[in-house]
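JOB MANIFEST
job_type = single_chain_structure
chain_count = 1
residues = 673
[input]
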Amino acid sequence: MNKITTPSMSLHDLTANTIRGLTMDAVQKANIGHPGMPMGAADMATVLWSRFLKFNPEDPHWPNRDRFVLSAGHGSMLIYSLLYLTGYELPLDELKQFRQWGSQTPGHPESHLTPGVETTTGPLGQGISNAVGLALAEKWLAAHFNRPGYDIVDHHTYVIASDGDLMEGISHESCALAGHLGLGKLIVLYDDNHITIDGSTDLSYSDDVPKRFEAYGWFAQRADGHDPDAVEKALRAAVAETDRPSIIAFRTHIGFGSPNKQDTSSAHGEPLGDEEIRLTKENLGWPTEPLFYIPDQVLIYMRGAARAGAQRQAEWTELVAAYETTYPELAAAYRQSLSGELPDGWDEGLDQLFEPGKSIATRAASGAVLDLVSPRIPFLVGGSADLTGSNKTRPKNVKHLTRDDFSGRYIHFGIREHGMSSILNGMALHGGIRPYGGTFLVFSDYLRPTIRLACMMEIPVIYVFSHDSIGLGEDGPTHQPIEQWMGLRTIPRLLLFRPADAAETAVAWQVALENWTGPTALALTRQGLPILDRAKYASAQEGVKGAYVLSDVPDPQLILIGSGSEVHIALEAQELLAAEGVAARVVSMPSWELFETQPAAYRESVLPAAIPLRVSIEAGVTLGWERYVGPQGAMIGLDHYGASAPYKELYKNFGLTAENMAGTALDLVKKAA
């Protein structure tokens, strides 16, 4: 215990100043970081965590805890200080190792790394948008499982957001939807400090934020962020407002207490410096030594708040036990939703859903799969960014969700691709829901920053990307994805699956629903594709390996590799080559990522080194395919944009034909002879 005399001030001021001191010392020790935001937000954060937030550090994953999101993730020392003070498994030594190799206190909070961190934040606008998904999930689960006297799902989502969060376009998208849906348990504490990196917000920002949010349908207030009584009063009013989400513009001062850096942009992202830290601590009435000073009273006070949370969890556990007795079937469904385990028999009949010989777009096949499995997976909840009919993402007999009826399982996200994807992340992070969302593949560029975060957090979001190539035809090059597949393949932990026909599409959904280690993206066609006769060709179930020998011949001289809508072209080329006396193997490769996880022996069996002559075909950029065709192979694709015309004309004019593939293969054979 510290022997130094505790400063004479209220418990609130002791706690807020402890956060400021820890922040200054940790950032200075690391010689990098953002001290200003935690120093300015310390008062409102202290009130929130000590008087409102429902949490239990002994069980960071308690389902009915309140969720706290530090959307202004650059101010990470704020949450690290709070987690330590309230007793999470985050030792003080971790704060002293802020931003260092192997520590649990990285520069921006990471949900998979630090207990008590709900979501990975830092890219501005993402945290507040994740919070919309967290609040949406809470309200959906409450609508499905709560019964009179048994509010087993009953918690709030609190956010501390910055000017930067509210400037970013993604927050406009997600917050507008939050207002539309009336997410009354979402409460945003806006750190209105008037400072960004470049200087005063007056340089670029003159929004009246409360009025803007009122226009979204939010309850908006203003308050002094350094007056604990004003903070408490505003928060109580927000909690009492149950029909609308709430935002409170708390006027704060960045770098609060610093004589020379308060209210300056230099306090945002630079250490204060040893001399300024000394002056600041003296100004706050805080001991200059020792570093990382924590009064005993603060630990007692904040860990008392944590003990209150543990008691509330104990009461909740008793309520759930009574609920299980009164509503055993609902309780079992609730437990299964939280576990995410797929019900027995969820995939029954999936392998017999499509008849060979017919033609169907893989987007339509995806819709048929959803029709089959959705009734069997009641926690499968999804939607589309205003492309429901095109994406085929709404299963039959599934109601859409509205602010007056949250029992629906389909969400109309509106034309908000970026916001949708971040909301999906929040839903997945909350637990109890398996989320998916649809749009055109070309618009995956709007989703890319959020997909990247989903991969970092290893959360199982499913993206349904239809209209996946020039095969969409007349809409032209603005809507025809060329580089998007390859761009998505470069994102670590993202599993991209591009099925060759309806049967592979069923396998794609199987893979997606069974993938719990990260997100899955399905790339689906607008145009119809022949359903392959699996009595003649290999089973589509082989697609779970990412690539497989679809059609083989004795002693193949070369290998034709295709993905998605180009696989049937490879099969046609195989026949043309056979007529020329050339034996060719056809490999379907729906997923590079799955193929790369297979044992080396399996990969060698599909693409033997002894067969170096290979031709790949995909209606997109060829970059990357060299890893599979090798130095003696050839790649057929599109290293340019498409055009506006019927898709069959586009394939013909751009050389995506069996004739061109067979001719390319023959050239390789002649060259090797």
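[summary]
The chain has a mean pLDDT of 97.
The longest strand covers residues 186-192.
exit_status = 0
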